Amino acid sequence: MKYGLLHIFLMTLVLPLSAQSPKKVLKAADKFYQTRQYEDAYHQYAQAAEIDPRSEDAHMGMGNSLREMGRLAEAYGDFQRAVAINPKLWEARHMLGTIDMERGEYAKALNHLQRAHELNKKDLVVMQELLQAQIKSDHLDKAEELSQKLLKRKKSAVNQYLRGVVLDSLKRHNEAESFYNQARFSDPKLTEAHLGAAHARLRQGKLREALEDCNRALEQPKKLTRTYWIRSEVKTELRDFHGAINDLSALIEAEPENIGAIRQRASVYEKTGQFENAIPDWTTIIEGDKTDHQALFRRAAAFERLHRFELAVQDYRELLRRAPYDEQAQTLLASAESQLYQLKKEDKPPQIQVTSHKVNQLNEIEIPAGERVVTLSGDISDDSPIDRLLINGQAAAIPRDSINPHFSFDWTPGDAKELELEAVDIYNNVSQVLYRVKRTETDAPRIRLLSPYAGDDGEVRIAGNIYDINVEGQIFDESRITSIVVNNVNASFNTSQHNPRFSAKVRIANMEYLTVNAEDEYGNKAAKKLRIRRDGLTISEDNPMGNTWVVFIENSEYQSFASIDGPARDVNLMKQAFAGYSIHNTIHRKNLTKDEMDRFFSIELRDLVRSNNVNSLLIWYAGHGKYINETGYWIPVDARRDDEFSYFNINLLKAGLQGYAKDLSHTLVITDACESGPSFAEVTRDHMIIRRCDDWEATHMRSSQVFSSAGYELASDNSQFTQTFANLLSNHPDDCLPIEAVVRKVTEVVLGQGTQTPKFGILSGMGHEDGTFFFIRKKR
Q: Cystine design at 636: which of 331, 335, 594, 701 (Cβ 3.0–4.6 Å)?
């Protein structure tokens, strides 16, 4: 078979390899190849090679199959193996040379094809390809000799055309034209002959004939894109620049990577003064080859012709960076810079804007307090390049000759009262700005949630069937608050108000957390993230007390009175005891001053009760107390000894509670400090009745009660009152425990100690309706 023309395929064999003949496998492979089933042919030839690794036919078949599939690198390897098996196998040498020609490796192709010709001097195809390799390798004398031999062997159109190519390459264009014409006469459809004639006539200046030849070449069934190139050359010589550009554009559309065509089109654009169109072509060449200095030079010149001197200067500078000793580039750069300088000369001062820090209406630049090094950044706007920037007399780095540069400068303000910035452009136009320095606070805002209330455990409790809630709260900060966001919803608040209150309606369906973010005018930020706990907070048969809150006031670190550890232990003990009961929120406030106690009970607690629909409220005070003139006092941490006015009169507590008593069903005040006094409560005598949890009146009627230790004024570190209270809650067997049962047991134990006389009564003026306070255990 002829290896250059075979078509090879693979056939999956049923019999084991050892049971088959290589000839049968090769025969099957040949059938696949001849029917152009190259993949199957390849595998069949490979199987034959596995049976007989020394089979040159198998390796040739594999190579030819791979070449037909476009897998040239693999095919090349199989042809090399065939040559290794049989060095005189001219067909394999021929295929190696053919692949080398396709790859553009003409020197290697010449060697392989020369060897193939030596092994088989009769094969015309080998001679024709060898001739082309000689032309490509510039061995024109040998090519002329071989072209004559080819014509002696056979005067075919192809051989006549190849003879014309050799003569054309030798610049014997008139003779070349003759052979191209002979080839066209022999085969009028040989496109290459028409194109060759056009090239030869172009070189002789026969432009009209060359143009006709190009047109005739494009009329043939086989169209060569190179025709557009030659015709563009002809049209350029005929000064039909528009037609030349169209032909080059058609060539570039067919071959987008043809840099020669792109370069030629840019040159034609320049000849017609279309510098705007030439620039994109030069740019394409520059981007593809960073070492193409000529393209960079031509683009710079095009920019200059368009009076775009800034871009021309950039290109000339880049050219000098690449070729620093190019005198022509140096001269052109100096000329372009001079023209640019004169063209752009103006007298407007630059405009300086600091963007890194706020400048207020008083022309003060706000710098965070405590920052030792401040990074100042901003922008300079000007029609001309900026020459220099000074910040308080120090030079700041900016890009050289930059237009509208951005600047960044690390400044150490120290005790500086002023900040001066000075910008100068290349025309010595000067701009100065002077700011007074204002140090701003750096504390983050404090977030307080009113509704739903956030307990000490970092949770908010929401009724299980609620999907949208109104969130209310307050932000505390020295500075103006500019942003409050709740779960990505912008909250409503008065932006001009100090420590503003806010509200936002948010959807919490499928939400696990409630997040509040706040930011002040100086960029100080705070975030509060709370887990959403869905509980049933409504009054029910299982929990007649409804939404129940406990407030602990723990005062232990006194300024004038003795500091004690007992209140902290008492509060922790009660928290543990309450853990088993239906307490929905716990507020724990420590070491309150008199003003803080007054504000908490009259305003803050009121807002929390109303915003969160609290039904039952227990207030527990642990700390020092005083009983003066039948009036009870709680001792704030800032109270002064023997200064009654500095104490917290618990009648103020009642006054505060009266402001929201109607919002509560049950109120219980427990004070482990001192007696409350007759103006605060009406003491219940010995006829106290233990109420029952199934008593409708006891659970549904309003109650306002107080239970005090009524012993020493100054708190001790070991309160029997609190310990007994906690033990009873922790160990009581029933799910419902009325306060009367607690009072009876605590009184019994404490009286036995002989140190205190607990008192239980009704808060006067609070609308008590003979209800009572129950402690309801959580469902087990």
A: 594
48 CB-side CA count, 13 A: 28
CA 260, CA 288: separation in Å to the nearest integer? 12
* 151 and 159 Cβ atoms separated by less than 8 Å: yes
Residue with tokens 């060697």: 111
Q: CB count, 10 Å around CB of 133?
A: 25
Please provide the size of the chain in residues: 780
Q: Give the H/E segment covering residue 420.
A: strand 418-425
Q: Which of 616, 463, 461 is nearest to 548 (CA)?
A: 616
Q: Are residues 422 and 466 in the same domain?
A: no
Cα 418 from chain centroid (whole Å): 38
Predicted local confidence at residue 98, as pLDDT: 94
Residue 391 lies in domain = 351-440
> Residue 503 is encoded by which pair of tokens?
């509200």
- Both structure tokens of 508: 């919490």
Q: What are phi and psi of 575, to 5 degrees?
A: -60, -40
Per-residue pLDDT of 628-646, as tens digits, reads: 887 888 999 999 988 989 9
DSSP 14: S
Q: Beta-carbon neighbour count of residue 718 at 10 Å?
A: 11
Measured from the Cβ of residue 662, the count of other Cβ atoms closer than 10 Å reads: 10
Give the tokens for residue 656: 């505060």
**C-beta separation of 699 from 661 below 8 A:** no
Residue recorded with tokens 């942003």: 483
- Among 657, 669, 627, which residue's Cα sits nearest to residue 644? 627
The model's confidence at residue 142, banded by pLDDT at 50, 70 and 90, is very high
Q: Is 780 helix (H, G, I), strand (E, B) or coil?
A: coil
Q: Of 522, 517, 538, 521, nearest to 473 (Cα)?
A: 517
Of the candidates 555, 667, 552, the one whose C-alpha atom is nearest the C-alpha of residue 609 is 667
Token pair recorded at residue 25: 């496998």
Q: Among candidates 314, 321, 286, 285, which has minimal Cα distance to 300?
A: 314
**Alpha-carbon distance 499 to 450, whole Å?**
14
Query: Which residues have CB under 8 Å from 342's CB, separation 6+?
Result: none
Residue % of the chain over a pLDDT of 70: 92
- Residues 168, 655: Cα–Cα separation, whole Å: 117
Decide if 443 contacts 477 (C-beta within 8 A).
Answer: yes
pLDDT digits (tens, 9 = 90+) for 19-73: 467 889 999 989 999 999 999 999 999 999 999 999 999 999 999 999 999 999 9
CA distance 184 to 191: 8
For tokens 């740019």, the residue is 283
Regarding whether 478 and 366 lie in a shared domain, the answer is no
Highest mean pLDDT out of 277-281, 658-662, 671-675: 277-281
How far is Cα 317 from Cα 313, in angstroms, rounded to an integer?
Answer: 6
The total number of structural domains that make up the chain: 4
Measured CA to CA, the distance from residue 212 to residue 371 in angstroms comes to 82
- Cα(166)–Cα(143) distance, integer angstroms: 7
Q: For the chain, first and last CA: distance in Å?
A: 94
If asked whether residues 503 and 588 sit together in one domain, one would say no
Q: Is 187's pLDDT higher than 70?
A: yes
Q: Are residues 594 and 517 in the same domain?
A: no
Of 469, 485, 549, nearest in space to 517 by CA: 485
**Helices then strands, each counted (H, E), the chain:** 26, 29
* Residue type at position 681: A
Check whether residue 617 and residue 684 sit in a common domain: yes
- Is pLDDT above 90 for 403? no
| Same domain (yes/no): 494, 563 | no
Q: Where are the beta strands (DSSP E) in 57-103?
A: none
User: Which residue, 535, 559, 593, sits at the end of a domain?
Assistant: 535
Do 760 and 636 belong to one domain?
yes
